Q: What sequence folds into this?
């Protein structure tokens, strides 16, 4: 699987892994760090995918690889959220 395929699996609620990026369908991980999760919209009950911005301009730099994973997830979801899970 490619990193993009892993993120697309996460967007569909499916399991996937490629190198240091993985998902259990609900959470997205860079190494063992959760960089994305699913929450339920209070208005319509639909799932919302949220990405935690672990980059130098967001929550803080972790590693170049994690920054790349976050950047790809940000591009594919267009939904950024900074805070605790």
A:
């Amino acid at each position: 699987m490619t990193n993009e395929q892993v993120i697309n699996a996460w967007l569909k609620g499916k399991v996937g892994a490629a190198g240091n990026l993985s998902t259990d369908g609900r959470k997205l991980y860079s190494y063992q760090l959760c960089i994305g999760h699913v929450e339920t919209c209070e208005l319509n009950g639909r799932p919302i995918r949220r990405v935690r911005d672990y980059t130098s301009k967001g929550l803080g730099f972790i590693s170049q690889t994690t920054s790349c994973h976050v950047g790809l997830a940000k591009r594919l979801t267009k939904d950024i959220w900074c805070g605790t899970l």
User: Anything to note?
Assistant: The chain has a mean pLDDT of 87. The chain has one domain: 3-77. The two ends are 26 Å apart (CA to CA).
